[in-house]
Amino acid sequence: REFVRQEIGDRHAYQWALHVPTAADGGEQPHFHLMFSERQVDGIDRDPEQYFKRYNAKAPEKGGARKGYGPSAGQTLTKAERAAELKELRGRWEAMCNAHLERAGVEQRIDMRSHAERGTGLEPERKQLPSAWRGEGRAQVIEFRAARAEVAQAAAELRRAVPDTGAEIIHLEAERQRREQAQREARERAEREKAQQERQRLERMSSRELAQEIARLRPPRVIDLVERDRAVLQAEAERQALQNQHTEAGSAAARARDQAQAWREAHKVQAWFHDKGIGHAPKLRELEQQREEHRAEWQRLGQRIEEASLRVQHVRQQAHQRITAEQEPTLAKLAELEALQKEKARQEREAEAKRLQQQRIEREREEESMAALEHRLAELRAAQEADATQPEPSDDDPRWAAFERTFMHAAQFEHYLSLTVLAAPLAGLKARFAAYMDTAAEQGMTPEMFAQACAKGMAEQERRAMQEQAARDADPKQPQEDSPVSTPTP
């Protein structure tokens, strides 16, 4: 019913019948007969006499129903097109029938393909006429079909027992392709990781290291490699060998000519008769023949030298093209490295310029701070010398402990000053520490920073004193240590 609804529906008048006769082997042989009219139901009410008349396209209600069935209704089809439509119809029946078999829980399935399309290796059974089913023919047909079923079952069991070589080959080929793909992906991944590591290594290099790397990777000149190429050397050797033979042939021809001329001078009469064709001088004829042979060889070798020179030129061009192509990846990498090296050098120059500028700024700040501090200390020393009162004690100043600790450590362990040298200056600092520290604080200095500055200044003063003493020892005219001129400033 579902198949009839699918193929006929309400578009045509039809009727069908289901038959289940007994088959030759005793089983059931279900089949159905479907009869329908190709006249299309178009909704126009017609009596039976009008229904089967010719269709009227201009006035359908005046004519009969239109003919046409299926997707190509009303079209004239070729034999191949009709065969294709029939094949599609069989395919639709196969799909619907198998769906209902599965729904009913039946394992068997139908297949509308031929034995050749399915690859069963069986021949289609010929149509059996009614006469073949009478008498002994019926038993023979049943026996034949049973035997063929046994053969089919044996073939199926054989296929299960014997591996499918074709399928195994296909499986192995697929496995080979899968492994090759995996290996290719692994190589590509390794190459990417190696390239990433190489980029990181190059990025960590300085401009000088990059310049060394560029010099290491830079290949020799192409022209030098061309001259050392094996094919070029061989072609050049062949040309040089021909050139040597050419020179030897020319020399041999010249020797034969000179010998012939000398023979003529020694045998003028025989030479005159020889030239006039009166008799022949065998020796002269031999020398002239040698000259001609050597000259012909000289000319022939000259042509071969030209050909060899062209061959050398051609081999050089081929070597130049090959070597240039081989160096392209290296030269491309060198171009990248050179660009990176230039960028690194620019960054290093900028960083160095910033560093020097920062050092200059810090030095200027330090010089300004020290100048202001020295100026203030000079004022305080002048005030101390002018003030006859007792110096202010510094024991009560809480900043003195931090100053003294930092000063002693810096003076002894950073500037290597002895306690003897430190005693008098430290006492002077302690006497006026509060005033000195207030001045240093105005410059933004902590007790520790002021202690470092004092230790550094004292070390510099001690160094100048030692230099002056060394100069006095070297030059007796210099003032002596007890001279007021050479006395260091306290």
From TrEMBL:
InterPro entries: MobA_MobL. Residues 481-490 have a biased composition (Polar residues). The keyword Translocase does not apply. Residues 114-134, 174-204, 345-368, 455-490 are annotated as: Disordered. Residues 114-128, 459-480 have a biased composition (Basic and acidic residues). Keywords: Conjugation. Residues 1-127 form the MobA/MobL protein domain. Belongs to the MobA/MobL family. This is MobA/MobL protein domain-containing protein.
